[in-house]
Every structure is written in C-alpha cells, then in structure tokens.
Input
Amino acid sequence: MTRGERAACVIGWPIKHSRSPLIHNYWLKTYGIAGAYRPEAVRPEEFRAFTQSLAARGYAGANVTVPHKEAALECSQPDARARAVGAANTLWFDGGALRSTNTDVEGFLNSLDAGAPGWDRDLKKSVVLGAGGAARAVVHALLERGVERVVAVNRTAERAETLRERFGARVHPTRWGERNAVLGDAGLLINTTTLGMGGQPELILDIGRLPGHAIVVDLVYVPLVTPLLRAARQRGYRTADGLGMLMHQAVGGFALWFGKKPEVTAELRARLEADLALPAASP
Output
C-alpha cells in the first residue's frame, strides 16, 4: 500500500464466499480513491486478537460477517444502534478508539424498499429463521417499521428466546420443528441462516403454507437464487435475495473508512451477478 492509501477488510470464517471486496473495490475505483479492501479469514478463537491488531495491519476499519458479529460488539465501543441490535458488522477508528455500528438494519430496510416496494404496508406478522447477528438486525428493523408480530424460529430454542429478551413481547420464539406451522398467516419470511448457502445443508421448508401475498427473503447470496427463492418463485411469491442487503449495508462502512458516501447502482449489481455466475464463484 502506498502513501495516502487507506485500507479496510471484511473478517469472517469462512470468508471465501464474500463479495464485499468486489463492492468496495468497485467504489474505490469509481470514485478515484486510493485505497484497498481485502478479505480476512479469521477463526472465532482468533477474532479478538485480530481486531486488536487492525491498526497495526494498516486497516482503518473492517466489516464483520458470520460468525463474528456478536463478538465484534464485545471487542469495540458500540454506538446506540449496535447496542440495540446486540451485534456489530462495521468497525472503525475514532481518535484511536475502535468503535462499532450495525449497518445491517438500514441495509435490510433499504434493500426491501428498493426491491419490494410496499412490503411493510399492513404487515402484521413476519417469520424470521435464525437467531444470530443478522437475525438481530432484521428483527430490530421489522419492529422499527411497526410489524406487530415477529416469529423467531431457530434450531436452538434458547437462542430464539434471547431475541424476545432483547426486543420485547412482539417477538415470539418458536422451536425449529414448528417452522412450517407458523407460516400460514405470515406476510414476510426471512431466512437469516446459512442453510441453502453453497456447501451448506439445504433449508427444508414447506413454503406452500404461506399466503399468496407473502414475500420471501433469503439473505444468502451464494448461490444468488437459493433453493428457497427458487421454490418461492415457482409458487408465484414475490422474493428478494441477499445481494440487495449486501450492497446497501456496505454504504455506511465505506463512508466511514474512505470519506465518501457511495451509491448502490444497477451497474454494481450487474457486476456482482456476473461474478456470482462464474463457475469458480462457489466456495
């Protein structure tokens, strides 16, 4: 890295699937900013030490992805949004202090606003699969938009219970074995788990139980069209993929590290879709 350049990274385990480097390096080139953005594969037991060495490694900050979003909160000074969500996905330095925020909330909301306009109109019940960092951001976003009931379904029941403890009585923890039974009156279904991602087990779900007006969202984006989204489209449901959220959540971090608020454009999405279509794109 030459004088005047700034660098950031994305930290995850695994990290090979991440397209965040493509997004940020596209923006760096588009806006003529001298800088770099790199993937960093970091095991959970090494995460704290890695974040403590970010500055020494030349990084102005980092994105944080699975499975580190909750740990990132503990390794930094979180803002009000990150504390409310209980997870952080963006780290940056402020006067030598490592601070954190969560841009997944606006990433999720802005993506759905753009890809499924009117999705929150008269939305009374949503079903969220998963209870990790991404699920926390999604639940926070749904409650912020006024959804009356959020059913949180997780393979570990205790983790789903923590969502109700954090966000209140509008969240209803549900056991994994009951996931099909809660779909009948849900206007929105969101998969925040890694089920359906390349190399991971498939998500087994009877989505035909959803009402005809329901919208199906999968935050997985490798592959772009997951088995869940394919099945939903075959049944005529409106859908949204994980690429939209990925692009929109990246905006805040880029602005913090590189001093420019970037735009999410059709050209950026086209580049990401082309990259995902390459045979070597699968993890």
The mean pLDDT is 94. DSSP finds ten helices and twelve strands in the chain.
